């Protein structure tokens, strides 16, 4: 709740309270019998109208509760009016008295209902015990009052038991209302003026009703005047609450938590149960005369207490079960969580080892789940995860454990497996679950998953953490290979994982230690037969003298974000190299990874690098991968827009190996397509490759794009490409990557490049 809510103007409330108090005090100065329609009922009626005015003014969510409060006040004012008209109407005074009391008692259903409404519009299970608490206090209070006040009065003659009955009902009923109001006053609500005013109103009512009963219904004198003013002020308190703007927020949060077995509550209830019976036992007079009423009410008290504790202990058990479920299950999908998976796995491996069977662990990770989350939103992502969980549940047998480890990772433990073939067959069925698309509201989502398999988990009894780690490693391997979606764990995977980790750590200092270098491979124009650009390719010269190829460390750098500083270094170094040689007709081509492109600062970094090195943006080609472009991403688009506007050229690297969607070609401003080596390598040998390359070249030209053929290794390939009409070529046949940018100025022909040679 914002502070603003607490600083709402209170002048209206103060005005209401002042006017009613003034009216009350003014009237007490009049001679006895001052309570008249004008001086008492009118302010009371005004209070009810003020409540309705507040509802009209502020349109609270809890309007019905406020209207019920107004109804309660009106009923009470009607009872006041009847009371004050005693003698004016030709009715038997006894009957008349009962009529007045009935009218006063009718206010309580309205007040109680209003309080329940404020508590969320419905009495939730939790509020049942609260209402029962209220009933217990009310019954105990009633019994105590009956023994302490009513019985001595009855013994003294005068009014009969039935005349006293309503009088001792008011304070207990006030207590019931008060308990609900206090329950409402949780957290921020407790600090709002309306809540304070309502609590004060009902407390005043309780005190006045209590005194009225304890003092044996005083009807004249200053005590009686004070009580009259108090009741009037109780109406005024409710009205003052309703005309305060904060009245809008007087509604309980949907599930406020109250502990049923809170020690204070239990002790208070115990006291409420015991006290009246103690009073009965200790009463000096013989209580026979009123025994008729004491017995049923006493029984009711015991019954209410019994019901209250039965309900709360049932609920405690339910809550414990729910807590236990929450501790062992994933809240989104209801599948087992990591902790309970480990327990299951421990038991399953033990069972399998004992029965000489196999126990397999299938570790499943959804492919490109992030794209679903980013493009369709997290709600759809959650729905998808739930649907996947349902399919997995149906896939496994009832006794087998299916767990979600978080994110888009799931684990299935299969028991009673006969060997590795069974495990593979199960993994294939698991992958097959994704053949059918997922229909999520209006959209159908096609999804694939990668599965890592540990076929013989029973070998690791007592070390099930390692089984999960192995299955995770196998899944990682499955993800790396495009074609295979399933990978079986092998011990060498550990070595790979360790090697990856080592590379990841060493990469952190690679730039600062000057271990990164660029080599350059020229790209030739087929018309002018001269180099038009040179592609900057990264090499990592490690301290031990080894040179690491980019494909061995760039994917690791991408996964760990280290690609961002590396990418910046590449752009700046490449730009500086080209700017330093001053060859104005040559461009430099740099590779950009998807993660760089999705970095909001990427365009700024590249522009800044060109500004610092003095390289014209037109002389830099940015080689993008299809995977970064297929799904529209606002950050990627903004980066490309800014760079395109600055004059940078864009190329699609490894064209044809990524996605089948080509929509991005028309959406984005691309200048070049680089046909991947796998298509080029078949030229001159494989007619279908020739058909494909021809189709790509035609399509590119139709779209106004130019084509570079990559990886040209043979004269035959070069000839076919020349005939097909591509724009530029690059490959070992013409020039290998070299440490020197100025290596090639020769015409298109197999060339000898200077400088150190790679590959
Ligand atoms: P790429 O961008 O497709 O680069 C072409 C790769 O093919 C280079 O391998 C190059 O040496 C090799 N190549 C060129 N001509 C031939 C040929 O005739 N035959 C064969 N077999 N290969 C040829 P390299 O340098 O190992 O780079 C591999 C990949 O690593 C690059 O593929 C690129 O995707 C990535 N990479 C290289 N440098 C960077 C970089 O600075 N940043 C990023 N993000 N990726 C880079
Ligand atoms: Mg490239
Ligand atoms: Mg390429």
Strand tally, please?
Answer: 16
Q: Major β-sheet, in short?
A: 8 strands, mixed, barrel
Shape: elongated
Q: Write out the strand line-up for the largest beta sheet, numbering strands in chain order.
A: 8-9-11-12-13-14-15-16
Q: What is the helical fraction, as a range of percent? A: 55-70%
Secondary-structure blueprint of this entry?
Blueprint (H helix, E strand, L loop, with lengths): L2 H4 L4 H18 L8 H22 L4 H22 L8 H13 L1 H12 L6 H31 L5 H4 L5 H15 L8 H22 L6 H22 L20 H20 L5 H41 L9 H17 L3 E9 L2 H8 L1 H18 L6 E5 L2 E9 L2 H13 L5 E3 L2 E3 L3 E6 L9 H17 L5 E3 L3 H16 L8 E10 L5 E11 L5 E2 L1 H10 L3 H19 L5 E5 L2 H4 L4 H12 L6 E6 L8 H13 L2 E7 L7 H5 L4 E4 L1 H4 L6 H16 L3 E4 L5 H10 L3 E2 L30
Parallel strand pairs: 6-7, 9-11, 11-12, 12-13, 13-14, 14-15, 15-16
Antiparallel strand pairs: 1-3, 1-6, 2-3, 4-5, 8-9, 8-16, 9-10
The structure holds ligand C2E and magnesium ion (2 copies).
The site of ligand C2E has 23 residues, from strand 9, helix 20 and strand 13.
Structure description:
This protein is of the alpha/beta class and 759 residues long. The chain folds into three domains: 3-315; 338-489, 2-Layer Sandwich (Alpha-Beta Plaits); 500-730, TIM Barrel (Alpha-Beta Barrel), CATH 3.20.20. The protein is built from 28 helices and 16 strands. Strands 8-9-11-12-13-14-15-16 form an eight-stranded mixed β-barrel. Strands 2-3-1-6-7 form a five-stranded mixed beta sheet, sandwiched between helices. Strands 4-5 form a two-stranded antiparallel sheet. 40% of the residues are buried. The structure holds ligand C2E and magnesium ion (MG) (2 copies).
